[in-house]
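FORM 7B: Structural annotation worksheet

SECTION A. Query
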Amino acid sequence: MARLWTSSLPTTSCLLAIASSSQCRLASAHLPRPSPLSCPSPHSPLTFRSFSFLPLRFRIAPMLRQEQRNITFGNVKAVGRSSDAGSTKFKEREILVQHLLVPEDQLQLLLDIQRQVMQDGVDLSDLAAEHSICASKDVGGMLGWISLGRTVPEFEEAAFKAPLNKLVRVKTKHGWHLLQVLSEREASFLRDIDVQELSTNMEDPEFLQNAQLLDVREPDEIATASIEGFKSYPLSQFGKWAPTVAEDLDPSKDTFVLCHHGMRSLQAANWLKSQGFTRLYNISGGIHAYSVKVDNRIPTY
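SECTION B. Predicted structure
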């Protein structure tokens, strides 16, 4: 099986190891662990199969909702897309990609599949499930939102230059791909924010109205120490709030994630990013740093 994706983000196993320290009680038993994929989702460190306990509609629905908001029908290049892969605009965009992969010696099969889609109206999702040798076949060939530097060069160049909704063939070292770009959006981000900067922002009433403040610590921790305005999303209750979090919250708004020291919040923020949240802030040092540097009335523990 071909390995298509690479990532510079920390792996979930690394995060779990770090967070198992006495300084940060990560609820690793509650967040799903990833299983190896031959062609994983670009939303590292967590993949589609990491959440195989959820119904399929929960795993791909956030992508489809974003697709419905942004998609443009017809073979038209989207506004702001540049043909220069090195340009700033090119780097600041993400694309929603679906693909199918066949072995290098099966080009004729790929051509037949392309004809079935273009002439007979067969759904690429069904053909991917039947013929693709990529593990993404389990979700209809959906690779999710990708940015530059996340795929092999040939695939990246073809995908980022492809007009929306047009089938494109490309050969890589893994075989022949048939891909289509379903939508594009401004690139999402996940950044650290210092507790002092957070405190300054929270003095602005408009910030409190527009920002989404999430605390992923456990209820007993929140009872010991808390920051006003943060809503509780305990990792031990992940299975309860995860399926509807993209509906309960607005994935396009600034979302700030808090824990004790910043490790659990980083893992949760990475997962939210994989679900279509585009503006994420991990609070560095967590509530412990907030107590030490901003408000010593908040107990440390």
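SECTION C. Observations
Residues 1-29, 32-90 have pLDDT under 50 and may be disordered. The first strand starts at residue 93 and ends at 102.

SECTION D. Sign-off
Analyst initials: ____
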